[in-house]
Amino acid sequence: MATAGKVIKCKAAVVWEADKPISIEEVEVAPPKAHEVRVKIVATGICRTDDHVRKGSFLNIDYPVIPGHEGAGIVESIGEGVTCVKPGEKVIPLCIPQCGECSSCLNPNTNCCLKIHFCESQNLMPDKTSRFTCKGKPIHHFLWISTFSEYTVMPDSAIARIDAAAPLDKVCLFGCGFSTGYGAAINTAKVKPGSTCAIFGLGGVGLSVVIGCKAAGASRIIGIDINKDKFAKAKELGATECINPQDFKKPIQEVLFDITSQGVDYSFEVIGRVDTMVAALASCNMGSGTCVMVGSTPLGAQISIDPVLLLTGRTWKGSLLGGWKLKDTIPKLVTSYMERKLNPDMLISHILPFDKINEGFELLHSGKSIRSILLF
Q1: Can you spell out the DSSP letters for 110-156?
Q2: Which of 293, 189, 286, 206 is nearest to 242 (CA)?
Q3: How far is residue 176's CA from residue 215's CA, in Å, rounded to a whole number?
Q4: 3-class DSSP state for residue 100?
Q5: Which residue among 32, 134, 358, 368 has its CA within the 20 to 30 Å range from the CA of 188?
Q6: Which residues pair with 138 in a beta bridge?
Q7: Main-chain dihedrals φ then ψ at residue 169, nearest 5 degrees
Q8: Of 34, 11, 37, which is closest to residue 22 (Cα–Cα)?
Q9: What local confidence, expressed as pLDDT, does residue 1 receive?
Q10: Predicted pLDDT of residue 264
């Protein structure tokens, strides 16, 4: 392309300081270096994790930073040594890389590549420099991919080529939200046919868990949220019933025991609150229930539980991006979407121009959106 090897000026959402509003700025995006890819982002979703970054409550973030991690776009140019994608191809950036070389990537039982942000900061590219500048200052990356920029650069371990016919404004959800929730049910919990499931939180990820539980053959799927406006959508996607904890005087785990007689087979916490994590664990069948933690907690959160909850036989698991090895799996999930085997389209409640990103966050805070998609 004509821009290959040149600095590109474009718009991006910059968080200059923690707990400050997002600012739309013109940034300069440098060309990709060896084993890097520069991508033109077409669509990106607003996820609760981006709000944690904005508020300063996400692990080890340096400011100023360009957030965003649920996007889809087109390869603009590639650096030396890149073989997995070519200019012009449609791609999804990966917020969990797959280097293919570390012990985790070689382990079939985990997707937690040791290049992940929890192990090694992804605030800068692997060579410890940034590809973004604004007003003469370097701007930090987020999870190496920063999809809140019209052009962005990432390592080739953090990108997956997808079907050339895929609609980018829809399949961007596979970059985080849908894959996270659906995979938590299918991969992490391994929900069995005929089982009873409870999902705490009916946002975009929680509703994706509902879709996963239904696909796995669960016979009873209980959605839990304090926002009753989400119940109709949850039932449309497969929930058999929905309850609001505020309608009861007793703790929600006791309510679930009352209506199931022995607790649920699987529970999923998809909010990111320590109190609901304990409630979700306690709502499981005491001898064989499985609780899956999906929600991302704010920085510094600590949890305290009665160990008897686990001693009796419950299993407590975490699920990171649905347990998928993303570089291998994202193309397959998109193919399933193209074959109409998966349909996350119903999770998209709002489509906004990128300049209205702050409006998108307001919709998130007010509980009026399921997933807002920003278009460049």
Answers
A1: ----TTSTTTS--SS-TTS--SEEETTEEEB-STTT--SBSEEEEEG
A2: 206
A3: 19
A4: coil
A5: 368
A6: 133
A7: -75, -10
A8: 11
A9: 63
A10: 98
How many angstroms separate the CA atoms of 291 and 287, rounded?
Answer: 12
Averaged over successive runs of 10 residues, the pLDDT of the chain (376 residues) comes to: 89 95 96 98 95 89 97 98 97 97 95 92 96 97 98 98 98 97 98 98 97 98 96 97 96 96 96 95 96 88 92 96 97 97 94 97 93 97
Tokens of 143: 């999870």
H helices present in the chain, as ranges = 48-55, 168-171, 177-183, 204-215, 231-237, 252-260, 274-282, 308-311, 326-338, 357-366
Q: Which two tokens stand for residue 133?
A: 């500048």
Q: Which long-range contacts (CB under 8 A, 24 or more apart) does 365-371 make?
A: 365/51, 367/227, 367/229, 367/230, 368/229, 369/46, 370/203, 370/204, 370/207, 370/230, 370/233, 371/45, 371/46, 371/173, 371/177, 371/203, 371/204, 371/347
Q: What is the pTM of this model?
A: 0.95
Supply 307's token pair: 């160990």
Q: How far apart are CA 1 and CA 368, in angstroms?
A: 41
Q: Residue 55 has which token pair?
A: 């508020």
Torsion sign across C-alpha atoms 340, 88, 69, 226: negative
Are 280 and 198 in contact, with CB atoms under 8 Å apart?
Answer: yes
Q: Indicate the residue type of 88.
A: G
Query: How would you classify the pairing of strands 151-155 and 159-161?
Result: unpaired
23-29 vs 132-134, strand pairing mode: antiparallel
Q: What is the pLDDT of residue 2?
A: 80
